[in-house]
Amino acid sequence: MTKRILILSVFVVASCGLAYELIAGALSSYLLGDSVLQFSTIIGCYLFAMGVGAHFSKYVRDEDVLARFIDIELAVGLIGGLSAAILFMTFSWMAAPFRTLLYVLVFMVGALVGMEVPLVMRALNERQTAFNELVSRVLTFDYLGALAVSLLFPLVLAPHLGLVRTGFLFGMLNVAVGFWTLHAFRAELTGVAGRALRAGIVMLVLVAGFALSDRMVQWGEHGLFGDEIVYATTTPYQRLVITRWRDDTRLYINGNLQFSSRDEYRYHEALVHPALERLPWAKRVLVLGGGDGLALREILRYPNIEHVTVVDLDPAMTAAFTTRPELARLNHGAFSDRRVSVVNADAAIWLQNSTAMFDAAIIDFPDPSSFALGKLYSVPFYGMVKKHVAVNGLVVVQSTSPFFAPHAYWTIDATLRAVGMKTYPYHAYVPSFGEWGFVLASAQQDYTPPTRYRLPLRFLNEATTREMFAFPPDMPKLEMAPNRLNTQSLVHEFEQDWRQVIR
User: Fold this and answer.
1) CA distance 338 to 355
2) Exposure letters 213-234 (e unless 16+ CB within 10 A, then b)
């Protein structure tokens, strides 16, 4: 019976160990971007720390193996359980030490986790378990635990509990293993009452944290965003936060501002109308991204438009901007228009499987701050877009800032040209973002900017349109290589450009 308890403990501690690693990687990706870099460095640090922990486990005396195992479970439960909350609060209120604290916590948890399995194996060995049976059982349950949490984390835990609450949950599981081991082997241990008291205190801290995690997240996000948070949710794909201050509503995705209601009309008029004004015959429009419905609002103003297909990955985004009254007011109820079809899918996969053709495509993805987003700005992706747009149609891509991120901006232009499209880059000043860039492209059409607009617009007229398509000397064109899928140079250019701007 005691052997089974130890073997089952391996399953739980393996699950907890991987969970802390995934939480740290996901949280740093949300807050810092560049998910490949964050996960790679965190996994490397964690595995190295596990090796260090495994090495130091040899210094535990044989007669102290179970006692030290229980102590480690309490320590890893406390540190690992609190880690997500500590990191989030640190980033929200004092961002400077975040990276240092991130790797310190990852190393501490990894070192403690690295001691767990060797101690369990020694405890089993002391109970005269055959070596071949000992290794096979321990490793089998270790890998099964890792499999279980690797499936549960993205499908259930992160989207439904959130990262902070998930951290507290796995901390409680570690402490439960400590309690369980303490009870099962109480006859062999000394200081049982003291350890039980410590375990009870740690469990109470974690339970309290689990119960108060929503308040902690709200408090942290208030420090991060400053304004009142009116809506927040964690989805399998991203963290969505909507804030309001007086008449200003703002959307943040993974901490990055997507729009401010005070000036979003400038961005969305610039994104949509220079193209659609030149396509009075257009009937079918494709929108990739744009789950807030604001570009859609502008498209639907044209009476010639018969159907718009919106492809956005996250159903939580389109649902929020469809059902929440304060958000639906911003897009004028665009998602409820009978001419609109919403598809919640990966845009690249949808383009591969669809045979639909369109007269125009409006591409409004978040900036290419990670490789998952960078693929949506690549040569293969734009090649697929080209196949779905009429040869005399137009494609418009939001393309980050040509002033703050010029290398990234002109890489996007080069990528569109690499698939055989003519490009017409332009820019607009949006107060919330500064100088912002777009690239208009066509397979065959020779494009000239409009001198007038059929619709009444708040920002665009002949003069502002002419200025948009002229680049001043401090925003010169740069010769860049296209963004190919196997190298994703755009992500590196984007990171380097913005690193020069953000302090």
Assistant:
1) 21
2) beebbebbbeebbebebebbbb
Catalytic annotation present for 248 = no
Rounded CA-CA distance 243/92 in Å is 15
Q: How many residues does the chain have?
A: 503
SS3 240: strand
Residue 98 is which amino acid? Answer: F
Q: How many CB atoms are closer than 10 A to CB 200?
A: 12
Q: Residue 294 and residue 279: Cα distance in Å, rounded?
A: 20
* Predicted model pTM: 0.73
C-alpha 463: how far from its chain's center? Answer: 39
Give yes or no for a contact between 265 and 458, defined as CB atoms under 8 angstroms apart.
yes
Residues 309-363 pLDDT 10s? 999 999 999 999 999 988 999 999 999 999 999 999 999 999 999 999 999 999 9
| Angstrom distance (rounded) from CA 352 to CA 154 | 25
In this structure, how many other beta carbons lie within 10 angstroms of the beta carbon of residue 176? 18
C-beta separation of 202 from 74 below 8 A: yes
* pLDDT score recorded for residue 37: 74
CA angle centred on 365, ends 490 and 481, rounded to 5°: 20
**Three state DSSP letters for 388-452:** CEEEEEEEEEECCCCCCCHHHHHHHHHHHHHCCCEEEEEEEEECCCEEEEEEEEECCCCCCCCCC
Closest by CA to 85, choosing from 159, 145, 137, 163, is: 163
Q: Which of 34, 292, 364, 413 is catalytic?
A: 364
Classify residue 157 by its DSSP letter.
I
Per-residue model confidence as pLDDT tens digits over 78-133 = 999 999 888 878 876 665 577 888 899 999 999 998 888 788 777 776 765 555 56
CA distances from 199 to 114, 174, 182, 202, 204 (A): 21, 10, 10, 5, 9
